[in-house]
């Protein structure tokens, strides 16, 4: 193995997905503690010292109690370089999450064991499944009374159509939580042991029974666990690493993030099973690119302005797909053919941003951007242009007319609009003839964040007038006649200048199609 191969083989890059409140932030925090990046719990969420609170617009997260941004965190653990990409749990930010999922090699799904599979888990799971990457499951909040573990696994298999393999099994739960029966590592992990040295009790690999005398054996809860584990061994799925690699089986871990129980066990197993960066299909699937290719390449999966309010900067997040990143290197941007020197890059070590010198395939780097990048852009070195697969795009369903409250402040209004739209969280349209601004989003919350950020970051108060829910349909400019437009099918153009109609409802669209049967309408360009 050369140095690059060695470095790439140590990378583990993954995202954590969950329904809001399942415990994603809490488990992330525990992982960062284990990685030595933070020193005490409570720093990640909404506290003054945490990276998550360094941006003032994130105050909206605190107000609403939700996680809005996707952040990148990196740490070393057990000779591996771990990259965690956080994703917003709220469904209004699904688009951001979907793109983030394109930049990872595995996903961790956190489930509240009292609630089971919730709607947002299901939605995000589908995307991960489509990507064919491994999915690891953490059944959280075992310190609370939850649902029967067998029931949880059955629901997971049923609703998500994936095999579950329990890596460990709870011994009791809620007030009666005693520990975990670790099937994978053949040991019992005690919950809150009086003495840390006795946290793990070995199991006989053959019989699966405790090898030492313990009070546990007297307890009916423990007997119940043994019965369940027997049942799993006889009637459950068998462990299949090949299926795990393709996302057809998910290893299931139980634990409690809040009390830091089972999290380290999870991390250790995860790092062993999760894949190192693998190949990418490029140039319209005509070629395969190895992560250890000697040429550097990567793609932009996210752009975020003003991460640090003191600097007012814009950062393009790049997933490195091949080779090595060196500070100051020259790359080419596939979309424009433009050459760029990457002088200013940043890595993300949770509590501070460090200036990056070197990163390899699997890593995420943030590039300070002066307007060169768009979401989905590919960059590369070497002679052969590289284009990665396009990132998923959503057609907005909610629309607002937007104007500056203070007409004297047009400059900051336009600047803010332009920059926030470039981040890709919100779509901008203009009415066809009068060029009024119309914003489109997938969820209402995106508008609220937009309005909040315009005020906080650009000092521009905006007036938003809801147009409501609309169906966006593009029309071939050749077929367009401006008289086709009415209040029920508003004619606008997108950022590229392509015309589209915003139909009031399905009825309006049908009416239009009846009237103009030759006109071809498309859902997305
Ligand atoms: P999210 O990022 O997925 O939205 O969830 P988050 O980690 O913020 O957790 C949501 C709530 O669930 C938090 O409580 C958190 O403390 C709690 N929680 C997370 N993991 C566990 C666990 O293992 N056991 C128990 N009992 N609770 C857990 P909160 O009261 O909403 O927020 P906070 O004010 O405590 O931060």
Amount of beta strand? 25-35%
Assign the CATH superfamily of the largest domain: P-loop containing nucleotide triphosphate hydrolases
The number of domains: 3
Structural class: alpha+beta
User: Which strand order do you get reading across the main beta sheet?
Assistant: 18-17-23-14-15-22-19-20
Helix share bin: 10-25%
Largest sheet: 8 strands, antiparallel
- The helix tally amounts to 12
Number of strands: 31
Look at the structure and give the CATH class of the largest domain.
Alpha Beta
Termini separation? 44 Å
Q: Report low-confidence residues grouped into runs of 5 or more.
A: 46-57, 64-70
Q: What would you report as the Rg, rounded to the nearest angstrom?
A: 25 Å
What CATH architecture of the largest domain would you give?
3-Layer(aba) Sandwich
Q: What is the CATH topology classification name of the largest domain?
A: Rossmann fold
Ligands bound, unique: guanosine-5',3'-tetraphosphate
Overall average pLDDT: 87
The dominant shape is globular
Task: Please describe the structure with a list of short key phrases separated by commas or semicolons.
525 residues; Elongation Factor Tu (Ef-tu), domain 3; Alpha-Beta Plaits; binds guanosine-5',3'-tetraphosphate; 24% helix; Rossmann fold; 3 domains; 8-stranded antiparallel beta sheet; alpha+beta; 12 helices
């Amino acid at each position: 193995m050369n140095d690059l191969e060695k470095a790439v083989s140590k990378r583990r890059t993954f995202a954590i997905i969950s329904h809001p409140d399942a415990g994603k932030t809490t488990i992330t925090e525990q992982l960062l503690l284990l990685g030595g990046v933070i020193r005490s719990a409570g720093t990640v969420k909404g506290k003054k010292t945490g990276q998550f609170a360094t941006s003032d617009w994130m105050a909206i997260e605190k107000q609403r109690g939700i996680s809005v941004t996707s952040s990148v965190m990196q740490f070393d653990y057990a000779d591996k370089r771990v990259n965690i990409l956080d994703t917003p749990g709220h469904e209004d930010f699904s688009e951001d999450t979907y793109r983030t999922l394109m930049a990872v090699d595995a996903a961790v799904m956190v489930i509240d064991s009292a609630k089971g599979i919730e709607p947002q888990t299901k939605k995000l799971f589908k995307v991960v499944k489509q990507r064919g990457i491994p999915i690891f499951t953490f059944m959280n909040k075992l310190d609370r009374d939850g649902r029967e573990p067998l029931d949880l696994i059955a629901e997971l298999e049923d609703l998500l159509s994936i095999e579950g393999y329990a890596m460990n099994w709870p011994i009791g739960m809620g007030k009666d939580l005693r520990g975990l029966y670790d099937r994978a590592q053949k040991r019992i992990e005690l919950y809150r042991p009086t003495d840390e040295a006795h946290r793990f009790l070995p199991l006989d690999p053959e019989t699966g029974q405790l090898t030492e005398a313990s009070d546990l054996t007297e307890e009916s809860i423990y007997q119940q666990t043994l019965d369940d584990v027997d049942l799993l061994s006889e009637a459950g799925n068998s462990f299949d690493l090949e299926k795990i690699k393709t996302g057809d089986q998910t290893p299931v871990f139980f634990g409690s993030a809040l009390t830091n129980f089972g999290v380290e066990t999870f991390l250790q197993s995860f790092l062993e099973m999760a894949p190192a960066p693998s190949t990418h299909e490029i140039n319209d699937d005509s070629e395969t690119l190895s992560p250890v290719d000697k040429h550097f390449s990567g793609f932009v999966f996210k752009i975020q302005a003003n991460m640090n309010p003191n600097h007012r900067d814009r950062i393009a997040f790049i997933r490195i797909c091949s080779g090595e990143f060196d500070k100051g290197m020259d790359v080419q941007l596939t979309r424009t053919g433009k050459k760029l020197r990457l002088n200013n890059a940043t890595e993300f070590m949770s509590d501070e941003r460090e200036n990056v010198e070197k990163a390899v395939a699997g890593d995420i780097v943030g590039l300070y951007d002066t307007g060169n990048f768009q979401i989905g852009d590919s960059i590369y070195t070497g002679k052969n242009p590289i284009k990665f697969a396009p990132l998923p795009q959503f057609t907005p369903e909610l629309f607002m007319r937007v104007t500056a409250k203070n007409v004297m402040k047009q400059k900051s209004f336009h600047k803010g609009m332009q920059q926030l739209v470039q981040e890709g969280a919100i779509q901008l349209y203009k009415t066809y003839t009068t060029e009024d601004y119309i914003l489109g989003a997938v969820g209402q919350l995106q508008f609220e964040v937009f309005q909040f950020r315009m005020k906080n970051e650009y000092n521009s108060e905006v007036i938003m007038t809801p147009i409501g829910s609309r169906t966006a349909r593009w029309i071939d400019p050749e077929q367009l006649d401006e008289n086709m437009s009415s209040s029920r099918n508003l004619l606008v153009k997108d950022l590229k200048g392509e015309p589209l109609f915003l139909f009031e409802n399905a009825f309006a669209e049908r009416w239009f199609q009846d009237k103009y049967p030759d006109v071809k309408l498309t859902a997305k360009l």
